[in-house]
Amino acid sequence: MSEKGHKVAIIETNETVCEKFEKIKSITLYCGDGCDPSILENAGIKIADVVVAVTGDDEDNLVVAQLAKLQPNKPKVISIINHPKNEWLFNKNWGVDAAESPTSIISRLIEKDIK
Amino acid sequence: MQIIIMGCGRVGSQLANLLYLEDHKVTIIDNNPKAFARLGKSFKGNTITGFGFDKEVLEKAGIEHADAFTSVTQGDNRNIVGALIAKREYRVPIVVARIYDPLRALVYNNLGIATISPTTWGANKIKELICHSDVLSQVSLGNGEVEILEAEVSTNLAGFTSDRINVPGEIMVVSITRLGRAFIPVVGTVMNQGDLLHIAVASASIPQLKRILGI
Fold first, then answer.
1. A59 and B77 in contact by Cβ < 8 A?
2. Phi, psi of B120 (to 5 degrees)
3. Which of A36, A59, A67 should we substitute to test contact with B (largest number of B Cβ atoms within 10 Å)?
């Protein structure tokens, strides 16, 4: 995304992953909990056009979506669904504008291959 | 009331028993079946093993007809999402979430969920216990005409009965907390040094109370 000229900020809790991203100059890195309202504010949630919530925890992704939609700028929220059983929650009612489930993407691809 | 509790930890299990003893219909959900051992043998409410966001699990717990829902798992985010599901998807009238982070508790209050932050509550409570040398107002009733104050029994009052403090229509000891347990004093209850008193007092009589307490 940053190569395409977008201004990108990443929030990550894992310090090892943080160190990896620190070398990339075009990305602003925030090491911390992305569900923490103050960290989201530091990362610029109030001026963001898009918020991408792609942690490995569905509840974390949903919480980020709620916090994003509480902002006056109402950024667009894109997310992933880790557990297919949680799919019913990833919708506009929950502040999620678009969501994909890796499990269903893979099963769709496999189905196509079988045919 | 029909009440659903998500999370059978220390708070969840204790809450389940308290509500069950008051004849509420309690269903408690936890993803670890071993957690239900905390409930003890006297609990005869429903237990459901499963994930708290699972539609099937929630509906099996009777969320469609529940009067109240509370989420008290270890995870703040889990509790928030659980509470939001109860509120948004099932319109449960009373929804309470335990949230450790005080800032987040505030944010979610704005989303229409009653949140309790044990962190803030605990810090305030500990502060009071450290600084209770003077009387502290616990509850202000009406427009402050009557206050419930907290005071420790000092040496000069220890050994006397609690009605020694009472003044009809003005001052009344309503509760004594001794070694962490509170009880209501009767005529003749003797106060021990270190007892924590909760005293209902007409605001105009506070100076008089302070004189009686010797502070």
1. yes
2. -65, -45
3. A59
Contact B111 A66 (CB under 8 A): yes
- Residue corresponding to tokens 């930890």: B9
What average pLDDT does range A22-37 have in this prediction? 85
How does pLDDT run across B100-136, given as a tens digit for each residue?
988 888 888 877 788 888 887 787 667 656 754 566 7
Q: Contacts of residue A94 in chain B, CB cutoff 8 Å?
A: 84, 88
The beta-carbon neighbor of A88 closest among B55, B81, B111 is B55
The tokens for B29 are 């959900």
pLDDT digits (tens, 9 = 90+) for A72-96: 999 999 999 999 889 999 999 999 9
Q: Which residues of A touch B88 (CB under 8 A)?
A: 93-94
Output the CA–CA distances (angstroms, integers) from residue B133 to A94, B121, B190, B194, in the order listed. 49, 20, 21, 11
Classified as helix, coil or strand, A11 is: strand
The reply to whether the predicted model has a pTM over 0.80 is: no
Residues of B in contact with A33 (CB under 8 A): none
Position B204 scores a pLDDT of: 84
Residue B183 is encoded by which pair of tokens?
A: 């009880």
Question: End-to-end alpha-carbon separation of chain B, Å?
Answer: 46
Q: Is the ipTM of this complex over 0.90?
A: no
Of A85, A55, A93, nearest in space to B53 by CA: A85
Instruction: Chain B: give the shortest CA distance to residue A23, in Å.
Output: 31
Q: Is B104 within 8 Å of A85 when comparing Cβ atoms?
A: no
Task: Describe chain B by its helix, strand, coil percentages, rounded to 5.
Answer: 35, 30, 35
